[in-house]
Amino acid sequence: MLSRTADHLYWLARYLERAETVARMLEAEQQLAMLPRPAESAERSRRATLMALGAHEFYDTRAPGATGDVLDFLAFDREYPDSIVSCISRARENARAVRGSIASEVWETINATWLEMRTFERRKGAERSRNLFEFVRQRSHMIRGVHVVAMLRDEAYHFLRIGSFLERADGTLRLLDARSSSTAADQGAIDPHEWTVLLRTLSAFEAYRKLFRGAVTPQRVAEMFILRPDVPRSLRRCMVEVRDNLHAVVSSTSAETERRAGALQAALEFGRAEELLPPLLPAYLTDKIEQLTLIGDGIARDFLVSEAVA
Amino acid sequence: MKGAWDEMIGADGRARAHCREYSDWLLAQGMDRLEAKSAEADALFHRFGITFAVYGQAEGTERLIPFDVVPRVLPQEEWLLLEAGLKQRVGALNAFIADVYDAQDILRAGVIPAEQVLCNSQYRPEVQGVAVPQRIYAHIAGVDVIRAADGRFLVLEDNLRVPSGVSYMLENRRMMMRLFPELFVRCQVAPVEHYPEVLLANLCSVAPRGVDHPTVVLMTPGAYNSAYFEHAFLAQQMGIELVEGQDMFVRDDILYMRTTRGPQRVDVIYRRVDDDFLDPLTFRADSTLGCPGLMAAYRAGNVTIANAVGTGIADDKSIYPYVPEMIRFYLGQEPLIDNVPTRVLRRPDDLAYTLAHLEELVVKEVHGAGGYGMLIGPMASKDEIAAFRARIIADPARYIAQPTLALSTCPTLVNAGLAPRHIDLRPFVLSGKDTTIVPGGLTRVALREGSLVVNSSQGGGTKDTWVLEQGAPERLDA
Amino acid sequence: MLLHVRHETVYSYAEAVRYTIQALRLTPRREARQRVVSWSIQAPGRRIEQVDAHGNMVHYLTVESPHRELRLLVNGVVETDETDGQPNSDALQLSPLAYRTASSLTATDAALAAFAADAFAGSDDLRLRLLRGAQAVAAAVAWRPGSMQASDTAISAFQHREGLCQDQAHVFIACCRALGLSARYVSGYLYAGAEGSVASHAWAEVWLDSLGHWYGVDITHARPVAGQHCRLAVGRDYLDAAPVRGMRRGGGQERMQVTVLVSNSPQQ
Questions:
Q1: CA-to-CA distance for B69 and B176, rounded, in angstroms?
Q2: Which residues span the domain enclosing B176?
Q3: C-alpha Rg value of chain B to the nearest Å
Q4: DSSP H/E element including C258
Q5: Number of helices and strands in chain C (H, E)
Q6: Helix B348-356 and helix B382-394: axis angle, to 10°?
Q7: Residue A1 in contact with residue A302, Cβ under 8 Å?
Q8: Domain limits at C209?
Q9: Which of A116, A227, B15, B217 could form a disulfide with B23 if both were Cys (CB 3.0 to 4.6 A apart)?
């Protein structure tokens, strides 16, 4: 497959997944806003979401005094490259560039999503984001479903999967990061509701109930989303998928990237829940996000960037 | 326009024999149903993304080429004539291009003045003396055919560089089958969907010598090109890579594409990039769309470029008047389909006649495309005619003139219901080891009442083109 | 005469270049009136030889390992005959008509066309008119070596009133074509005496229809081409005949340094 095609597929998958992550984060934010809690705590939580997405600096240039509507910004700001609307646009641009390499139903579903995003954009005020997050989540499920059933298990498929799982792993870590740093800022006064909301926005509340008895604790939530191999959004699960798909496309230059991915997966396999205690968690998350970035860079170097020589 | 031939309705006001089946069906449809189907088609084209981006406008302004739900229907025997005539014509054009870049017999024989060819900006000295497989240059030709008031077909223009529009032939058919499945049960419409297969086989047949299983790619200028949809569509339908210049490189006169598993050799390029942009080491140095060194690989015979470099010399409007002569010179035959009678304004008497009759003629610039550098006398204002007259006098050799032809009409769904609109036809002729034409083509329709300009850039739309497998013989009602 | 040539070109880049491809027209044309005694091109990477449509010898060079510098060194000896402007009866590959249409670099505007009509007038002998024209071009576009970049087009060189020999050749060719003559660009070397400051040079050739051969005019010196000229390449303009035409991936800022020495005896 052309390196450029692989590049577009990889980023197509990443942007779709990123749109979903942002939607899930904002959904959590929206639900938290309905909980009875002090204004500072709500503000901190919004800030934490921005920080976790790496969006705070851009947001501050956008809305001096940080009183702007974070939700609207992260959902609709076309100039912010990782807003939902931008992610979907970028996903669609990448899809358009390789529409010959993806099943036409995949393209049509992405294109239709992009067209419908504009009807949300045209709405006014609070109406704008009504049902948006659900819409993005459902479309994301749909696109995933279409490509799983309609696409040949060839390189195109594997690069889509690599992009999806790498981004999902990253998104899961960032969601945890937002909650754990917002909790830490509340001087350790853990609000179990926050973590329940997180579970719900990750479609994992029911799974948690099956896995653990008793109250929702940050440590268990972290354990679930980092170490459990059977939780579909967990870091460990995502890394298994990344490795399998990476293995399917290995080239003569990709040994180092494979090693990194393998090392991370092994660390997760033999990891212990004690590493995830609330005081340790933020640093742990930062470290893992960095490792994911390195793996992403490696994939770009080995497969995607157009080099003259193999 | 008065006196135009209507494709569906005969002089007696009744449907022509081959159209009767369709026309009965059409008249039984309510306007509401046709309009609903038309709206459905638009929505589907948007969803499939069969659109082109419009530059300089806000994001999301992607336009559709308007699609009309009423097809143009051709009976089989007319198609057979067209098919034979087009194969003959394209055969002669290919022989001409091969001759120009080789022995130049036709120039030596004085059939076409040498300077008309060799001083033409479309002549590419870079490929003089380069042998190409099968001596085929125009592997894909889109020939624009019109039907005059007397019902005869005439060739208006040959498109031999990077002709586009075939995806609309295929998508329009797909759309019609989706909207009106019942029609295809009633009418025996020849299928066109195998075009990509035929095209791929054709491209494989012109691979460099000794290559048994050629790697064929489609080269596009990229996702921002207005015909990008077509490039992606054809590449997908043929199952070949859609490459940009940056995806390829040259080493030792061999062309490679960069893949996730390292370089892979490329044997045949179906290119949708103009000559000028193909190779910045040979043509425009500022081209970012090309692949540097491509022409070295080409000259060395290691890659086939389709269409070949330099085909523009045969579809230039200044060369067009000589095509009937080419058919006689190379094939020893009389043309089966005529040219539109054309005056060449570098000839003094043609110039004098044209200047005296500007208000009735169509005057075209010889190196123009897309219908911009053109005067349509009967539609033009006095000022426009005066301005054009000055341009002609300043440089007559740049222009040709033709009578204003009453392009045939076909019923078309417009705001006021069904009304006749002018149309043309672009069949696609594939030349390689064999010459093939898929029965059909792109029918373009001028949507504005009375307009003769069918170009999509000037408000034209498209229709599905039906060739009937067993059409009832057409009765020419006197 | 014997011309000893040493021509070094060094490109240096701010960042590593991942891929370079260059078309080198750095080998004397194989012609009856100039014979290569010895010739070598030293360059990194891989190289393959081809003859282009104009009959020029081209080497396509590719370098695929990352590099910050690229050095081309040409060394050779050529023996030339006295020519009085008449170059060679080289196998006519291209019709002279192919050199009659203005290219993008040799287009004319009204001012340049008027200049051509005036400067090339006045004699029955086309050769005399051409030499007169060359004189006028050399006066209108003053030769300023070294200090400046070449203009892109004949029109802009004519407007700037000064330029390199390449610009003078373009203006001259543009004038000839505007007058309906076939004219072509020549790139090569010139031996300009021990103190001569021109070495890498460009001039033009015009087709003499009545005689059936090309006639070489050194515009910079307003005289017919002679035995001091060594012809590397011809074409419709600089782009067809450039000694080096290249593209690369990566590299960022580029610096290029060229040194050319042409002498009539072996040297250090």
A1: 7
A2: 1-194+315-339+424-478
A3: 23
A4: strand C254-263
A5: 5, 14
A6: 170
A7: no
A8: 96-240
A9: B15
pLDDT digits (tens, 9 = 90+) for C219-241: 999 999 988 999 999 999 999 99
Asked if the Cβ–Cβ distance from B49 to A5 is below 8 Å, we say no
Which of C19, C20, C21, C46 would best serve as a mutation to test chain A binding (most A beta carbons within 10 A)?
C19
Regarding an ipTM greater than 0.90, the answer is: yes
Indicate whether C107 and C176 sit together in one domain: yes
- Write the single-letter amino acid at A214: G
B354 domain-assigned: yes
Q: Which residue of B has its CA nearest to A306?
A: B258
> What residue has token string 């013989």?
B473
Please say whether the beta carbons of B299 and B130 come within 8 A. Answer: yes
Task: Please tell me whether the overall predicted TM-score, pTM, comes out greater than 0.90 for this model.
Answer: no
Interface check for A308 against chain C (CB to CB < 8 A): the answer is: yes
* CB nearest C60 (choices: B114, B128, B296): B296
Query: C228-244 as b/e, with b when 16 or more CB fall inside 10 Å?
Result: bbbbbbbbbbbbbbbbb
Distance (Å) from the alpha carbon of B63 to chain A's nearest alpha carbon: 13
Return phi, psi of residue B382, to 5°. -60, -40
Query: Under a CB-based contact definition with an 8 Å cutoff, are residues B408 and B147 in contact?
Result: yes
pLDDT value at residue B475: 44
User: Domain check: are B142 and B154 in the same one?
Assistant: yes
CB contact under 8 A, A2 and B257: yes
Mutate to test the interface with B, among A99, A107, A253 (most CBs of B within 10 A): A99
**Cβ of residue A4 closer than 8 Å to a chain C Cβ:** no
Could you give the dihedral angle defined by the CA atoms of residues A216, A222, A226 and A229, in that order, rounded to the nearest 10 degrees?
Answer: -20
Say yes or no: B271 and B363 in one domain.
Answer: no
CATH number of the domain enclosing C71: 2.60.40.2250
Interchain contact, A309 vs C19, CB within 8 Å: yes
Instruction: Note the Cα B60 to chain centre separation in Å.
Output: 28
Please compute the mean of the pLDDT values over residues C35-43 and round it to a whole number.
96
Q: Chain A partners of C64 at a C-beta cutoff of 8 Å? A: 308-309
Give residues with Cβ within 8 angstroms of C239, minimum separation 6. B285, C103, C105, C245
In a domain, B413, yes or no: no
Written as six digits, the tokens of B344 are 């060449």
The verdict on B333 touching C (C-beta cutoff 8 Å) is no
Number of domains in chain B: 3
Beta strands in B354-416 (DSSP E): 361-365, 374-376, 399-403, 409-414
Q: Which tokens go with C231? A: 């012809």
Chain C residues touching B281 at Cβ < 8 A = 21-23, 245-247
Which pLDDT value is given to residue A100? Answer: 82
What residues pair up with C75 in beta bridges, in sequence order? C6, C40
CB B47 within 8 A of CB A112: yes
Sign of torsion over alpha carbons B87, B93, B98, B99: positive
From B135, B126, B141, select the one nearest B97 (Cα to Cα).
Answer: B135
Q: Report yes or no on C90 lying in a domain.
A: no
User: What are the tens digits of pLDDT across the range B30-60?
Assistant: 999 999 999 999 999 988 888 766 555 555 5
Number of H helices, E strands in chain A: 14, 0
Please tell me the distance from the alpha carbon of residue B67 to that of residue C108, in angstroms, as a whole number.
45
What was the pLDDT predicted at A183?
66
